[in-house]
Amino acid sequence: xxxxxxxxxxxxxxxxxxxxxxxxxxxxxxxxxxxxxxxxxxxxxxxxxxxxxxxxxxxxxxxxxxxxxxxxxxxxxxxxxxxxxxxxxxxxxxxxxxxxxxxxxxxxxxxxxxxxxxxxxxxxxxxxxxxxxxxxxxxxxxxxxxxxxxxxxxxxxxxxxxxxxxxxxxxxxxxxxxxxxxxxxxxxxxxxxxxxxxxxxxxxxxxxxxxxxxxxxxxxxxxxxxxxxxxxxxxxxxxxxxxxxxxxxxxxxxxxxxxxxxxxxxxxxxxxxxxxxxxxxxxxxxxxxxxxxxxxxxxxxx
Amino acid sequence: xxxxxxxxxxxxxxxxxxxxxxxxxxxxxxxxxxxxxxxxxxxxxxxxxxxxxxxxxxxxxxxxxxxxxxxxxxxxxxxxxxxxxxxxxxxxxxxxxxxxxxxxxxxxxxxxxxxxxxxxxxxxxxxxxxxxxxxxxxxxxxxxxxxxxxxxxxxxxxxxxxxxxxxxxxxxxxxxxxxxxxxxxxxxxxxxxxxxxxxxxxxxxxxxxxxxxxxxxxxxxxxxxxxxxxxxxxxxxxxxxxxxxxxxxxxxxxxxxxxxxxxxxxxxxxxxxxxxxxxxxxxxxxxxxxxxxxxxxxxxxxxxxxxxxxxxxxxxxxxxxxxxxxxxxxxxxxxxxxxxxxxxxxxxxxxxxxxxxxxxxxxxxxxxxxxxxxxxxxxxxxxxxxxxxxxxxxxxxxxx
Lengths: 302, 400
Description:
heterodimer; A: 302 residues; alpha/beta; Rossmann fold; eight-stranded mixed β-sheet; two-stranded antiparallel ribbon; 33% helix; globular; B: 400 residues; seven-stranded mixed β-sheet; six-stranded mixed β-sheet; 17 strands
């Protein structure tokens, strides 16, 4: 951590200033050279530096998969959990320590197949979590099997016949359940991705960022960073209104045929978070609760 | 035909030979190459089957439950957390008395996260009502899967065929593949007495009352407890039935004859090393070496853990001086499950051997023949009566 050296008023303590490298752990990533997750990691470092909270106030929860190694490459508290269970673990953690900044990471398999059932409930519970899905449309860690976002007809080692199933559209999926912040990025645009992650973290409530992070080893040729750079279109350049849920739904349908990046939907009137509702309920109960002495009096006969 | 390939391919080959009709699987190391091979077989139409690349192991077993209920021969395979994620469905499959075979490619269970071999996954599911068979080499994997379908369909109880991850799944060994015609003669097409179908609409496994009652025809309808008792009594018959099936398989394949336990140098053995899975093979070499030193030791490889073949084990092991039980799984707070069950089986016998229990290989911790040898020497050098405490464990390779 670097600390501002600017002299401040006598008694005041300088606010810490962070650089991306403050969030980089000494562990060297073991991803394949050229993996999109390297760029995602850079985006996360930059976003965390911009947020400006120290590592010990951040918890990073993941499931199982190549992308789920990511917490170990940061200086935040990390938790490499069970396949598909990152979201419920993160929810428990946030409940126990609401002051922590909680990030959740995983792949498309973790988020939309084995753990798919949790996404809906994390959204409707609306705890203040940021969920980053590194969507590579393949199972990379186990060497190239069909994933829930693999395109229809894809030949993989578990779909030698060509997949007969339609892929999940992660953007539509989360918006269908009412997610209040939905974005999509790519490591082909690290500054844009970093800004998007920062915005997701700052959003009060559950925020979802789908990151099309190419698998360099098992991914399709048209799903690589070089291609992303050519074909990606920024939503802001398209005149997209991210406060318009219907427009967001409309553009989200392009998943799989176009690579649109940016914030699809940001609820202009964010719903209350689960944490805020708990606090409000506690206050309400406390306000109407009889005093201890009064309760004891109820049991005392004159 | 003799081939040289991996244990996972041996398993896939046996599934193909068994003419399985529905495969539903989710990838998990070290099982993955097995199901990948099946996907290739389906694609190339070597197998006339449906392959469903499901979203989780829980769904894999659920798809197999549906397929088996509708009269199809179903197969899945998994490892470690995949098996544990299936746990709810495992109990259901057994309770519903659905014939099915699943390969469990043994792997350690987290936390902490480990992808390496031990047998904690399948041993922890010993009480879910599935028959558990353990293979000790590639040939046994292939033969056991085929025989397991006969057994499962005969007594309507699902069967796990377990084999050690990496030691067997990823290593290459020569093995013989029977002719398809021979397997077809041995394993006729699957017919299930209670198949769901439009000809005879029925509801399966509805809420069952605690007590038995008369049905609409005035007959006594078993309640939950009767059905559970039936699962137990029918499963216990599997020991004898599997031996019969194995004898038939011997006729068609020329292999078999010792389907429940495989004894090596046991005839005059004062000491017997007991193990499940691939450890049995390794112990043969250890026993050979110790025999040269004049130590009368044999090896008993247990190929069936559920039902627990207590009669056979009593007959083989009573009267020995000591048993040295090697296990790659254990029950924290007690000991290895195999040791506990052996001790229970031998309780009350006139001549009970001393029992020594060694736990090894957890989370893939390496072990060698030297470890086996020194553990056996250590055990037989102890004075009579020094052991017998069921909770005593010798840990092999701890701290290295």
